[in-house]
Write a structure and sequence with these properties.
Structural class of chain A: alpha/beta
Distance between the termini of chain A: 36 Å
CATH topology of the largest domain in chain A: Rossmann fold
Shape of chain A: elongated
Oligomer: homodimer
Largest sheet of chain A: 8 strands, mixed
Order of helices and strands of chain A: EHEHEEHEHEEHEHHHHH
CATH architecture of the largest domain in chain A: 3-Layer(aba) Sandwich
Strand content of chain A: 5-15%
Number of strands of chain A: 8
Helix content of chain A: 40-55%
CATH superfamily of the largest domain in chain A: NAD(P)-binding Rossmann-like Domain
Number of domains of chain A: 2
Chain lengths: 282, 282
Amino acid sequence: MTVGIVGLGLIGGSLAKAFRKYTDHRVLGYDVNPTVTQYAQMTDCIDGVLDKTTIAECELVLLAVYPQATVDYLAEMADVIADGTVVIDCGGIKRSICDRCREIEKDHGWIFIGGHPMAGLHHSGLKYAKADLYVGASMILTPKNTDDIALLEKVTNWLRSIGFGSVTVTTPAQHDEIIAFTSQLAHVVSNAYVKSPRAKVHRGFSAGSYRDLTRVARLNEVMWTELFLENKDNLIQEIDHIIGSLQEYREALNDDDAVRLRALLKEGSDRKERIDSGDGEH
Amino acid sequence: MTVGIVGLGLIGGSLAKAFRKYTDHRVLGYDVNPTVTQYAQMTDCIDGVLDKTTIAECELVLLAVYPQATVDYLAEMADVIADGTVVIDCGGIKRSICDRCREIEKDHGWIFIGGHPMAGLHHSGLKYAKADLYVGASMILTPKNTDDIALLEKVTNWLRSIGFGSVTVTTPAQHDEIIAFTSQLAHVVSNAYVKSPRAKVHRGFSAGSYRDLTRVARLNEVMWTELFLENKDNLIQEIDHIIGSLQEYREALNDDDAVRLRALLKEGSDRKERIDSGDGEH
């Protein structure tokens, strides 16, 4: 089949490279920056250029651009995408994008599915894209109909063919709620962590814990600002929750309350153990 | 030479195994739990038992027990440790322990040096001890005299011989200040992170960022409570700082202030980049 990829940055570029490396599908790509599209062609990331004509040949279209660009592109191409074509976006937040894309989908024969590949790097751009970015990763899908098993099986097979280790199907609302905790809060906390005045003088004083806590501090602030604001209700709730927890340790320390501090630490430690062992799972 | 190791848990056990694996030194060990000492002997972690008689044969004594036990042991052995012997503790906080051990050191011919190996696991006990725990790690030393080059060179060579990658010499006060940021805060934040109600349902929704942020959430609450309370001034300062930072993102989100949110994220991102590239170092 033919796969169309919109946006040839880290995510789209890696999807293109993965389809080229692991499958026999024909890969068409488009980036708003013509130099990037050209570079992708020259370096064999894509077989050809995705445009208003060639998009009609695609059985699968993957949108790997910012939310507003996703909506604009889909609106522009809505009439030329073939009936039955599956269109999946790759945005980090799903409620607003799914609402808007499903609005465009109406009266058309193609099928929109919200998507969020759980993989990334703190670098962006085609030059960091790699065919193996998705190997073992999870892909979250938010289809309109979760009971169209044939469709989900087809999409899952495509995703597995380029390395994805698992596919999780959920609703846009649940996606946004959980992602606020697993990904967005992690980036906020990590970014906040390095703001301590002590952050300047750590060499020789740090082991794995510091490295892990600050790994995602470096980020694309333009992209994350957009994602955070689109999910502000959930993210604010998570930030408030961790601030509240941190204040509890702070109080126990301030009161020299060893019993309470021990209980607080044990609670977190036990909870982590339960989650890791799977008891905390649905 | 003969090395004496007090406390055969993860830290002491790994020191014993490292000296046995990488050097020809004779290793004597002692654990308050006789079964552990016996097990260490049976499994060739140690060459013999460290006691009131054999400790006199040691040129180096490493104390890998809790702060109070460190002080108690040293007080008990003060008169039998040989002149010139170097005694190094392995505790996570250095001000109080150095003050107390230097008090005991007075009128004796042995030399106390505060130490803190920057390595660990969230498991404890001899069964998790491994000879390679310190390979490439940093050892922090807080000697009374930082200008006794011959002594520091001797100790550094011993440490390098069992795999340590670097030795950092500092004061107890500076150690405690920086460690509050690089290690203690990391454990508090990680432990707090998993307390979100959303922590239960993350499978399929998480990538590296969640895993990294929560890796050290599981911890020995008894040990960390003692360490945190001994360093409460510095740790409270760090907790207050990150709470203050988190509140800034929260406000920008609440105000839908994209400009401010972007600036906050860029500040953290730039800072992390500077630190990693070494510009932030002394």
